[in-house]
Fold:
Amino acid sequence: MDHYRWNLLPPVPAEYTVIAPDLPPLISQLLYNRGITEPSQADLFLNSDKRLSADAYLLPDIHPAIARIYQALLSAENIAIYGDFDVDGITSAVLLIQGLQTLGANVTPYIPHRLKEGHGLNSSALAKLQQQGISLVITVDCGVTGVSQVREANNKGLDIIITDHHTPLDELPPAIAVIDSKRNDSGYPFSELSGVGVAFKLLQALYQSMGKEGQLDKLLDLVALGTVADMMPMLGENRYLVKRGLELLKESPRLGIKEMAELARLDIGNICTEDISWILAPRLNAAGRLEDAMTSYRLLTTDQPQEAQELAFFLEEKNTERQKLTNTAMTKAREQILSKGIAPLLIVSDFNYQGGILGLIAGRLASEFYRPVTAIRIGDRFSSGSCRSIPEFNIIRAISKCSSLLTHFGGHSQAAGFTLPTENLACLEQQLCQLAASELSGIDLHPRLDIDTEFTLDELSGDTFQTIQLMAPFGKGNPPPTFISRCVKVADCCIMGNNGDHLRLKLRHLNTTWDAVAFGLGNRMPDIQSSIDIVYNLELNKWGGNEKLRLNILDLSAENQAERTV
Structure:
């Protein structure tokens, strides 16, 4: 990938210096950069407390959903929770099942098999659940596009309640309730809840109606896991849900999470959002990518130490296997792209791609080439695809325009998936490429790197790292603060990693020396001169039981980049 476009954000205007008057000026700058200009907004953002939690009864269809669940509880009906096979879907299922079981419900989990059943509602699975005596199915993290599947279930006398956070179609499924804050008619003030966040709000409304809301906090660890793993914005209500959930993970982690953390050498007592993203989530996802996601469900629910150890070890092995499969597939996919040439939208396809890693392939290619990417596993009769996009291109809107070619699809503006008859594949590729060529025409397709402020290395005083932690939890919408330092002296630089993918540096300014790493920038070794400009995060390296601050370099240049801004 070419260099980023560096965008040094403007300093806080004089009239906004009172955003956080009792805190260091750096915090005011960071808040201003994230669109926060009022002290009251800053107070909510920094404290991230329960004031951010909106009334669950503002969600669409919450009243008929609660009424139907009441009926099921009173009649001792058999309820199924129909989830999805990623971390958001698995945590949603665990949360709703444990929450309903506390109320005495007869409840059963159902998580579809990624390769055999695919995303979303499956009519055959719903029919089997009904044959097993299920009379009410509650979906989590799926179902909002399952119009035909819900209609078919209704005709057979099976009641459906949908909880989802994906973008609805123009027509909603004819369910008893469709709870989704992204509905056009939603009165809920925050539309970026995860699937597990929506499930939590349903449970919150139910418990609130029974005067038991205080019992729910023990489930917020699941909300934190699913929200972070699904890369939802760390803004609004998500900040409260994740902050409280992280506290629970630190104080009293589930047995399976504790075993998983020990295997991964993760200090669970100091867990942060980055640890969920890079360590826990890939392992919890590994089972659903390669085999059956119920393994991860069992890990999150077991209270048996031996079982927790065995499940954690299994997921560790599966994650290693997943990494190898992904690396092999990436080599093939990259060759395919380079042989075709770099188009506005990139499509890679193969009969041998593992369905469970399509999203990883698409995501890595989108990051590397900064283009929307569709990765497709070709089948004899049906093919499936996973898409990852860039901010300039809404992928779910593009796929919706091709809906006549598809048997199933769903997702967000930046990530989506679909299934279609293989005979329609060529036509789909043509339409998607035409849409991308039209919408991206004239746009400079280089990623923008927003920079919060400029520092010299000697200005990174001992309390700077502690100061920026006031902005946590970090994630989409609130990334770790990014800084620029110019004319930094390079005291040492070497290649790092088995394939030479990374750099390790020692940098100096005046009498200050910093260790630094540049992940994925091994190919930039020729750019390293005696003096460079760097854009970086400040991070705490926790390797080998020791903790030491270092610079995590995101981009570098031997030239002064003052003019290379947007």
